[in-house]
Amino acid sequence: MKVHRWFLPESPDVLGMLSRQLDVTREGVDALVAWAHGDETQEAKIRALEHRGDEHKRELERALTTAFTTPLEPEDLGMLSRQLDVTREGVDALVAWAHGDETQEAKIRALEHRGDEHKRELERALTTAFTTPLEPEDLYTLSRGIDWILNQSKDLIRESEVMACPPDGPIAEMCEALAESVHLLCQAIELVGAKQDDATERATEALRAERGIEKVYRDAMAALLEVDDLREVTARRELYRRLARIGEVVVDVAERVWYTVVREG
């Protein structure tokens, strides 16, 4: 059994880093209150504060990744890898569906079931495993997150069918951004435990790609204000929101990759 010794080589002030992030957050919500009361000048300030908050967060994460002397040795993560393969295939099928290929609907449903099977396989293994290559909690959370991505992709198609609202340009763009972010996310997960720096780099790239979903979502929602057909507005708003929620799952999983690296560092 290996002994992990906790130490901080350069003794970074991690509490100070967290405190600076808290200060920025407090300033940000105060600015949000002012904006909500009609002060439009606060908009630029909030954007700048959000970037500063990200910088403080990454600073803290980088400090924490150097806190262990013993790196995690790479081991077989075959069960999770199979689930990742299914998820990649699923988001690629979603892109094809968003561009008008209705034959992808059945494929995505089948892939969602396969993804569930791989997730259950991993969960059963975790309940009996004596040791695991990563912390069981991290493996479970990563598996659950990528499962949600595929589940909600299937739900998107179902909602489109129920509301008789086929995918449009913004949906296709958001699906493309989603696929890009998921591919990067899968790469990040596969690198955890083997190449920690590369894993966090891919996770950060996945977060950057996910912002493409957010941008298209905002533009598409604004464009709905010009549409007179209430039925179309309601249906498209729900589909856009569904994709935005899938993007939030990507963010959660990418952040978990960072957390796993910090813990296993």
Describe the structure.
The radius of gyration is 21 Å and the shape is flat. The protein has eight helices and no strands. Helix content is 78%, strand content 0%. The chain has two domains: 14-65; 78-264, Methane Monooxygenase Hydroxylase, Chain G, domain 1, CATH 1.20.58. Residues 1-10 and 67-76 have low confidence and may be disordered. It has helices spanning 14-36, 42-65, 78-98, 104-128, 136-162, 169-191, 196-223, 230-264.
Beta-strand fraction estimate: under 5%
Tell me the radius of gyration.
Answer: 21 Å
Q: On the 0-100 scale, what is the average pLDDT?
A: 81
Largest sheet: none
Give the beta-strand count. 0
Q: Bin the helical content.
A: over 70%
CATH topology of the largest domain: Methane Monooxygenase Hydroxylase, Chain G, domain 1
Q: If classified by CATH, what would the architecture of the largest domain be?
A: Up-down Bundle
Structural class computed from helices and strand pairing: mainly alpha
Number of contiguous helices: 8
CATH superfamily of the largest domain: Phosphate transport system protein phou homolog 2, domain 2
Order of helices and strands: HHHHHHHH
Number of domains: 2
Which descriptor suits the 3D outline?
flat
Distance from N terminus to C terminus (CA atoms, Å) equals 17 Å
Uncertain stretches: 1-10, 67-76
CATH class of the largest domain: Mainly Alpha
